[in-house]
């Protein structure tokens, strides 16, 4: 009896000892597992709702969490003009028998929703649910989306409205003459990109009831406000992910949340970072403390330059910094409908009185824009036949003085410019939001213009009033972001008249600005063309990039923008990046810098051109691309410190490292495919023949006619008063959408609609079985020997 009890006790002790050893080993491995760490500005609400439509849901707080938990169908780099597959495998474009263009998308067939406990398949039904809700309840993708059709478990098709646009525009300088434009497009280029880059957040078995409710309803019949409120208030207490990581809601605190590797992710073998720690911060000093402790893998940094230099020089801190232009530009908006800025030559002259190098010196980490003013971020994107007709408005005081004299101003004995008709000085106000760098911009601009005899005052206002100042045109000169499209040539349709500039918005401002009329644009070659900015913008946005009709509209807008100078030059905004150089091979993938940028504090930061790091932190991909490159098996831990970057070898193009099994598509390949399907859209020839170069330079109608001098004879151009309403030629703009009857057809297999499986981790179970067998065998052998 004693022997039996002793044997049982020995067996239990051995079993507990074995379990504790295994637990210790697992804990040790877990503690040593490589980890990614990020900072997110988010405040945990009193009641947490993991519903993706609920305001303040944790996963929706940042693209870091979204991409880790529910990666997008494709990652599209505007800069590289490349589609990188993620949750989808492939897509194609086509024309159906009814003439409608469509996008057919094939998603991965090996993804599964996972909540840390249960599994269910990820299918086209989930994708259909997401887009149906976003379209008919959230009111997105209007007016270009016409139908969503599920073809099978992993294939879904989106149909586009076939749109026909018809425009008539009166000539600005001769309203009795009218130009007619027509345009037909079976596709919407912007729509293709938008659809392909969405994050699917909606399991059908949870959200499908809302999608089914509106599927057969016409857009105008959907009670979208009521349904949107239902969606937003629906409480969801678990997080469903199909990406490389799943969000563990039990780890959610006021200071962060932990993402754990998803063992059922099809590319889990490549996910070498077992966890992602997200730190919630509310102030810059918290961010800096994490950087100083090496708790940030890679991120934009807001650390002050003096502290950044201290951290950079400390060999004991793995956080290091470099700089790059991430396609952000700050510049000027001229109120071209307010005297004296309604005179074209005045805007041209003021632009030529800005020394761009001196301007960039006004604030740290700014670079001058030494380029043509085109409305684009870089004229090097343009072919020579467009650039050959561009005017150079670089710093040139002598030419600027000639333009001011031509516009009716004369320099007095006190060195200031005066209107020869009214005797009033040339005076302006420069306004800006109360950002530190914009105030420095305004002060430098004031100093420069005053050196040349222009009277300048400055005004800063609370940044919350930016939209109000813009909408009411409450400025002479406004310092703002995005006065030029800076990301890529293919995105030009998102610029020009699509800026946050009230002069191009709404019928009242169209009446004021007349940008829907045909403007005379004198070219450098001596000819004059007529451009309707509004019409050409509509055409540019609807056209496929790099097609003949797209180039036609782009060239006209570039020439228009270059001549009339609605926006002025500014500076390139340089961002600083914090990288833990001991943790990943990021710096190895980036390679040596293109140069350095002086901080003005006795040290320099390595500098990279934006195209070099298009996949890493470069707008708009942000820092989600490294997740994808981990999936591809490219991003890995490093075994050595990768610093300083000047010592690193030159890397290969990261696209060449992507395994061939992934169908990477360039935008130009997509366009080539489309061109084989559709005939070029037709554009009618304007009815009037363009007139020769006018003898007077066109001027803008002023919003303050009482202060404007009367019109004088050639050659001195002067502003003309705003015509009375009876003198305004009515411009008719008709946009016709040809929509095939709305319908939704689904043919997904019932086996995949709502199958939820409770999964057991058989690896652990089998390991424990083997251990118990070995322990039992040892105990038996021991007792037998006794």
Produce the secondary structure layout:
Blueprint (H helix, E strand, L loop, with lengths): L1 H31 L2 E7 L21 H7 L4 E4 L4 E4 L2 E8 L5 E7 L4 E3 L3 E4 L2 H14 L7 E8 L2 E6 L1 E9 L7 E8 L3 H8 L7 H12 L8 H10 L11 E3 L8 E6 L13 E7 L2 H9 L5 E3 L4 H9 L5 E16 L9 H9 L3 H5 L5 E3 L15 H4 L9 H10 L2 E3 L5 E3 L7 E7 L2 H16 L3 E7 L4 H6 L5 E5 L24 H8 L5 E4 L5 E4 L1 H10 L5 H17 L2 E14 L5 H5 L4 E4 L5 E5 L16 H7 L33 E2 H9 L57 E6 L18 E2 L3 H24 L1
Parallel strand pairs: 1-14, 16-27, 20-21, 20-22
Antiparallel strand pairs: 2-3, 3-28, 4-5, 5-9, 6-7, 7-30, 8-9, 10-11, 10-29, 12-13, 13-14, 15-25, 16-22, 16-25, 17-25, 18-19, 23-24, 26-27
Helix pairs in contact: 1-21, 3-5, 9-12, 16-17
Feature tags:
alpha+beta; Dipeptide-binding Protein, domain 3; 786 residues; SBP_5; peptide transmembrane transporter activity; D-Maltodextrin-Binding Protein, domain 2; signal; 4-stranded mixed beta sheet; Solute-binding protein family 5 domain-containing protein; 29% helix; 9-stranded mixed beta sheet; globular; transmembrane
The CA-CA distance between the termini, in Å, is 14 Å
Structural class: alpha+beta
Low-confidence stretches: 21-32, 499-503, 681-775
Overall CATH class of the domain at 327-571: Alpha Beta
Within CATH, the superfamily of the domain at 327-571 carries the name Dipeptide-binding Protein, Domain 3
Helix content: 25-40%
Please report the number of helical segments: 21
What is the CA-atom radius of gyration, in angstroms?
31 Å
- Biggest sheet, in brief? 9 strands, mixed
The outline comes out as: globular
Task: Tell me the total number of β-strands.
Answer: 30
Q: Tell me the fraction of residues in β-strands, as a range.
A: 15-25%
Using the 3D structure, state the CATH architecture of the domain at 327-571. Answer: Roll
**Would you give the CATH topology of the domain at 327-571?**
Dipeptide-binding Protein, domain 3
Taking all residues together, what is the mean pLDDT?
83
């Amino acid at each position: 009896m004693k022997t039996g009890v002793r044997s049982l006790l020995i067996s239990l002790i051995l079993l507990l000892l074995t379990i504790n050893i295994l637990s210790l080993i697992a804990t040790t491995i877990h503690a040593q597992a490589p980890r990614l760490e990020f900072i997110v500005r988010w405040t945990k609400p009193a009641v947490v709702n993991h519903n993706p439509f609920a305001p303040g849901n944790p996963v929706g707080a940042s693209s870091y969490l979204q991409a880790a938990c529910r990666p997008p169908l494709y990652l599209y780099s505007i800069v590289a003009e490349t589609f990188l597959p993620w949750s989808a495998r492939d897509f194609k474009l086509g024309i159906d028998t009814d003439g409608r263009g469509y996008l057919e998308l094939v998603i991965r067939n090996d993804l599964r929703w996972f909540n840390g406990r249960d599994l269910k398949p990820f299918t086209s039904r989930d994708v259909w649910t997401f887009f149906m809700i976003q379209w008919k309840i959230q009111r997105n993708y209007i007016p270009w989306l016409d139908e969503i059709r599920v073809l099978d478990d992993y294939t879904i098709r989106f149909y586009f409205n076939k749109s026909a646009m018809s425009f008539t525009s009166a000539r600005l300088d001769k309203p009795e003459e009218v130009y007619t434009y027509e345009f037909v497009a079976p596709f919407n280029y912007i729509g293709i990109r938008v659809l392909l880059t969405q994050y699917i957040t909606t399991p059908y078995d949870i959200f499908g009831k809302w999608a089914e409710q509106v599927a057969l309803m016409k857009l105008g019949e959907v009670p979208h406000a009521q349904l949107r409120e239902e969606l937003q208030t629906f409480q969801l207490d678990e997080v469903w992910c199909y990406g490389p990581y799943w969000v563990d809601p039990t780890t959610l605190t006021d200071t962060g949340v932990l993402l754990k590797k998803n063992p059922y992710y099809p590319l889990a073998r490549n996910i070498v970072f077992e966890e992602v720690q997200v730190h919630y911060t509310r102030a810059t000093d918290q961010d800096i403390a994490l950087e100083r402790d090496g708790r940030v893998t890679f991120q934009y940094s807001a650390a002050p330059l003096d502290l950044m230099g201290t951290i950079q020089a400390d060999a004991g801190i793995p956080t290091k910094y470099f700089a790059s232009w991430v396609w952000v530009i700050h510049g000027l908006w001229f109120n071209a409908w307010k005297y004296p800025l309604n005179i074209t030559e005045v805007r041209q002259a003021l632009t030529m009185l800005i020394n761009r190098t001196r301007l960039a010196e006004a604030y740290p980490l700014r670079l001058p824009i030494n380029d043509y003013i085109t409305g684009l971020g870089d004229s090097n994107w343009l072919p020579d036949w467009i650039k050959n007709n561009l005017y150079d408005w670089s710093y040139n005081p002598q030419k600027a003085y000639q333009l001011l004299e031509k516009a009716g101003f004369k320099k007095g004995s006190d060195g200031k410019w005066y209107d020869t008709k009214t005797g009033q000085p040339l005076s302006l106000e420069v306004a800006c939001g109360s950002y530190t760098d914009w105030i420095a911009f305004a002060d430098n601009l004031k100093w420069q213009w005053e050196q040349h005899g222009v009277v300048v005052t400055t005004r800063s206002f609370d940044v919350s009033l930016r939209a109000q100042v813009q909408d009411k045109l409450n400025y002479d000169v406004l310092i703002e972001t995005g006065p030029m499209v800076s990301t890529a040539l293919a995105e030009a349709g998102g610029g020009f008249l699509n800026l946050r500039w009230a002069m191009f918005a709404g019928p009242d401002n169209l009446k004021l600005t007349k940008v829907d009329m045909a403007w005379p644009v004198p070219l450098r070659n001596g000819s004059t063309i007529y451009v309707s900015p509004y019409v050409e913008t509509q055409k540019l946005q609807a056209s496929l990039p790099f097609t003949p009709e797209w180039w036609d509209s782009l060239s006209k807008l570039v020439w228009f923008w270059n001549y009339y100078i609605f926006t002025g030059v500014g500076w390139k905004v340089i961002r600083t990046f914090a990288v833990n150089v001991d943790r990943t091979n990021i710096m190895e993938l980036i390679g040596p810098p293109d140069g350095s940028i002086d901080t003005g504090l006795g040290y320099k930061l390595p500098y990279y051109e934006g195209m070099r790091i298009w996949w890493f932190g470069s707008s708009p991909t942000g820092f989600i691309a490294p997740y994808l490159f981990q999936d591809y098996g490219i991003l890995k831990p490093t075994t050595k410190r990768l610093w300083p970057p000047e010592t690193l070898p030159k890397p290969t193009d990261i696209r060449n490292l992507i395994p061939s099994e992934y169908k990477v598509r360039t935008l130009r390949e997509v366009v080539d495919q489309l061109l084989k399907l559709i005939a070029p859209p037709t554009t009618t020839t304007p009815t009037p023949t363009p007139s020769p170069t006018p003898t007077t330079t066109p001027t803008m109608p002023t919003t303050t006619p009482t202060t404007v001098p009367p019109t004088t004879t050639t050659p001195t151009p002067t502003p003309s008063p705003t015509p009375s309403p009876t003198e305004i030629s009515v411009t008719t703009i008709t946009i016709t959408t040809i929509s095939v009857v709305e319908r939704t057809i689904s043919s997904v297999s019932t086996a995949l609609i709502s199958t939820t499986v409770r999964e057991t981790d058989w690896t652990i179970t089998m390991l424990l079985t083997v251990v118990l067998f070995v322990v039992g065998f040892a105990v038996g052998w021991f007792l037998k020997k006794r």
